[in-house]
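hey so i finally got around to running both of the ones u sent me last week. sorry it took forever, my laptop kept dying halfway thru and i had to restart like 3 times lol. anyway pasting them below in the order u listed, first the sequence line then the structure token line for each. didnt double check formatting much so if smth looks off just lmk and ill redo it

first one:
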Amino acid sequence: MNFVNRAGLSLWSRKVRTVLTLALFLVISAMVLAGILIRDATADAERRAERSVGAEIDLDVDLSGLGASGQLQAPRIDAATVDRIGALPEVRKYTYSMWDRVLLKGRYGLVGGGPKDPMGPGGTAGTGVLDSSLLPDFRSGRFTLLSGRHLTAADKDRRLLLVEERLAARNGLKTGDRITLTGNDEKTTAEFTVAGVFRDPRPTAEADPEYGVSPANLLYGTVGGLSALSSAGGGPLQVGKATFLLRDAEAQAPFKDRAEEIAGPALDGFVLDANDKALRQMTGPLTSIRGTATAAMWALCLAGAAVLALLVNLAVKQRRGEYGVLLAMGEKKGRLIAQQALETLVVAALAVGLSALFAPRLTQTVGQALLGREAAAAERELDSWQPPAPGSTGIDQGVDPADRPVENADPIGTMTVALDPADLAAVTGIGLGTGLLATALPAASVLRLNPRALLTKGK
């Protein structure tokens, strides 16, 4: 009788041991498959999140370098250089900005009730932007455009403004109206057209952390229009920061390399950073359950392999008499090892097949419950964040304004588990590999068996 037939008879005659081995393999296969399915499902959810958020690279002042150099004035970069970077094929959209103090005089006035003249009487922050729709507060939904339209690159050299609704109400302004602004030198004036009115939800009394003025008095204008009021005057347009939205999140590294090549020394004092705060906020729960599932999978897999090795070793000891008879009849030791391995692999293959039937549905249920719990905890943590008190930097209170949650970037609380051939192949390989490893350890004792000693002394 060949060893294949003997393996089948052995499995059938030793039903209790076969069922125990099958149960152990089934647990190992189910856990391994669950870990693989959760890994794939969370990775797929993260890829969808990346596509929805997009890759955002910020060109901003290197504050650490600025402090180390003792430089008092923030560096500027030519808008033409930023335009060349924005023309790279990796870039989908881009914008840049600059700001300076502007004043409202005469019949125009600022909204009261906020910080007392942080930029002098009638002074507020005028931010020139290339594309206002790409500003983080508009993209996140924190700011709402109530009427009119956004400023675009086509408006670069026009004199257009976006006005906060409280400032618009204070001066009786609506879309299409004109307002005169005075530059930082308190002499240069220019007339601007209101292109749109927006809403900033922050209270009037709350100081903007960057400029110190009331949110109600913030102005956004075209870069060309506001630069005409700049105290610098003349010369090429200089900007202080820029944002690039890439076509592909994986293009960050080549984009940075090409941007540094284009800008050269012009980037001195600046840093190119990936703004992935929204993505990290959304995918935090996914990362958490993936780590938990992976750790549990490997821990149980290793423990199961150890128990399986003990079972196989015990089976070899219990079958020493059988092996002695077979060896005395001329059976080769290698075929005995092959029989033992075949018995283990048949049970492993059956366990993998059974786990493929119920593991995906079970993983979807359990994984969704875990993810929902993690997402709910993350939501509670985000909701509990409180901004620093008006007029405070928050440092003395242990509050960092940079930790402010990104709006419209809710932690992901759903995932979809799907079994594909690659997953099944992976768990099959792990299951069969575990079986072979468990069989290889007792195989050494089979090679040392002596048929005469087995039949006469039982060892």
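and the second one:
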Amino acid sequence: MKIKLLLLAGVCILTTACQNQKNNSQTRIESNTSENQFDLPDSLSTRRISFVLNLKKAVAESSWSDFGTKNNEGTLIYFDSNWSEIFFPDSYVIEKLREGKKHSDNYWLLERTDSIPYHMEVMISFNEEDSSEFFFKNPVEQYSSVEEIGKYIPSVETTEMWATMVIHEMFHHYQYNNKNYRKYADSVIAILPFDSRNLVALCQEDEQFLTLIQGENKILMKALSEGNKDNRNSLITSYLDQREKRITKYGADYPLLERVEDYYVIQEGSARYIEYKSMFVLKNYFNNSEAPTILNDQKFNSFSEFEEIDLESSAFNYLVYAGPTDYHYTIGFNIMRLLDELKIEYKKELLNNPEKGLHQYLKDYINTLPNNS
């Protein structure tokens, strides 16, 4: 079975073919240091990528320390009009892609590597049929420019919002840089005859399944807002019970449902979590005279859209809505926020043990309570 993993910042697909100009007197983004360090050309694309790399560092410091171990996670391709700009190409990517103009070991400029109009993904394939591709067992980030993304997602109007999407994908790359996680994806998930498309189809074709999912998400949201510890614990128990009933109900017809769902809940839930955390870094930059800027970027808007991050507002409520195409993003995101509230350490274990579903961390917590011991 031919498998590619194409990770998109809105829909995750495991398919058989794989989901304002600033004044120079203002503070320059720290990425100038990165540009010199990596020997990148002085361009708008470089300044944007450097901005995201510094955002990566900041969100790692605040929310996921190991995510900041590397300055970058590996090769990324920035698509702009007729060009593909290859940042930090590894030897494998250089070997597989056609010859382009080399600026340095850290930057190549090529004619557009494909004709796909929209990119916001990490691409990786574990199938031998793709052994000639630059993404064969080799995760590569791919991003359309802010201008091109805006044509397909009109709500993405600024470089700052685009940057939160890029951070989401960088975290996917970080996931695949974990040997245990990559091995599990390759040897277990990629060979299954059931993938995220099946999760989407199940939601779209079975109204009751989606209703059950949304009911579980509603319980998680209540637990997140519950100030009483006992009531919160009761809600967590209710969530676990409802989830188990759904898995039992559908498991007979879809025996791989739980394993695949658990994988994508971790994969997309954690990436959405990091995306969300990056927004608070940008919020802290708002009205901060020492905040980084992006020079000569007409799409940079001084972080104004992050002045207030309200998950009930139309700009941000997509993060917590369990829709048919992305419920696994939302469930994982909400479980991780709940684990944070419970002060449960899970981040060091999560990718090293990807076979352990996120819900299991909640179950472990409930099992430690006096009445459950």
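quick thing i noticed on the 2nd:
The CA atoms of residues 47 and 294 lie 6 Å apart.
anyway thats it, ttyl
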